[in-house]
Amino acid sequence: MSLESYLNTKKRIIEEALNRYLPSVKKSPVPLHQAIRYSVFAGGKRLRPILAIASFELVGGKGDAILPVACALEMIHTYSLIHDDLPCMDDDDLRRGKPTLHKVFGDGVAVLAGDALHALAFELLSKTQNPKLISEIAREIGTDGMVGGQAADLQAEGKKASISEVNFIHSHKTGALMKASVRAGGLLGGATGKKLKALTSYGEKFGLAFQIIDDILDATGRAEKLGKRTKADESKAKATYPKILGVERSKRRARKLLEEAKAELKIFSDHEQILKDLADKMIERMD
Ligand code: GRG
């Protein structure tokens, strides 16, 4: 199957499941439920759930057991975007090509919509009855992962950061949830040992490269194409790859990481093509 048809098929399955799992807009408090659905269905790429499903299938996972986990990962991601866009954080007006949630529903509802998505994600994760998986995801999005990276990102604003500080920010703020997504698919599909190690390295490299590319696109891309404001990093004096290495060296670094990510998959003899093609798609996104 081509990558495009794989992505379209999985996106449809994920969105149908999200629709089933999310509270109805008819249920009280109506504005909160409208706000949650506004953000979740604003048109994301569903990359984290797709990484989880592709890893699950790669290691031989079958059936729908991955779906609650895949949707939980998308809910966590959407909560992080909602909170990140708030005036007290990045103060952004546009996300996924639409006005940000707080612009439409107000700051209070936006905070609560993010909180509710975070809670719902863990309710869904509990369906796996797999405490190791649940605790791993909690760790990867907490102070040792996504939230810790976001805190470091805020602290670094306006300061001169080193490349190792930027690596820390990127691999925690963005990379941790991507690595957790790949590992969640692997763990639920029954991967252990070398296979899980290979998936972990793939997830780490993919996640870091993804954020480097996001930095590059922020510096060089067009808002209409990206569905969000560009040059935001420069205006907030953020610690980014292009700021330290320049655009061309940052591109080379991202490409190298993605080539290394693909090479990690050499231990698999079948079904690894989707994860390889996804890495290639990230490389193409830069050009
Ligand atoms: C806990 C508040 C809080 C934040 C955590 C992840 C994060 C830190 C903030 C989100 C803001 C941001 C721009 C992070 C970088 C990761 C990133 C590039 C997100 C966009 O991901 P895509 O491109 O988005 O997968 P879609 O819309 O396709 O889902």
Distance between the termini: 24 Å
Instruction: Name the helicity range.
Output: over 70%
Tell me the fraction of residues in β-strands, as a range: under 5%
Any ligands, ions or cofactors bound here, and which?
A: geranylgeranyl diphosphate
What's the CATH superfamily, by name?
A: Farnesyl Diphosphate Synthase
- Spans where pLDDT lies below 50 across 5 or more residues: none
Q: In CATH's first tier, which class applies? A: Mainly Alpha
Strands of the widest sheet, in order across it, are 1-2
Average pLDDT: 95
Structure description:
- The protein is 72% helix and 1% strand.
- The chain is globular, with a radius of gyration of 18 Å.
- The longest helix has 28 residues, at 193-220.
- The protein is mainly α.
- It has helices at residues 3-21, 30-40, 47-58, 66-85, 101-105, 107-125, 131-141, 146-156, 163-188, 193-220, 223-226, 232-235, 241-245, 247-263, 273-286, and strands at 94-95, 98-99.
- A two-stranded antiparallel sheet has the order 1-2.
- The protein is built from 15 helices and two strands.
- The model has no long low-confidence stretch (mean pLDDT 95).
- The chain has a single domain, classed as Farnesyl Diphosphate Synthase, CATH 1.10.600.
- Strand 1 (94-95) and strand 2 form a beta hairpin.
- The chain binds geranylgeranyl diphosphate.
- Geranylgeranyl diphosphate (GRG) is lined by residues 44-45, 47, 77, 80-81, 83-84, 89, 96, 146-147, 150, 173-174, 211, 214.
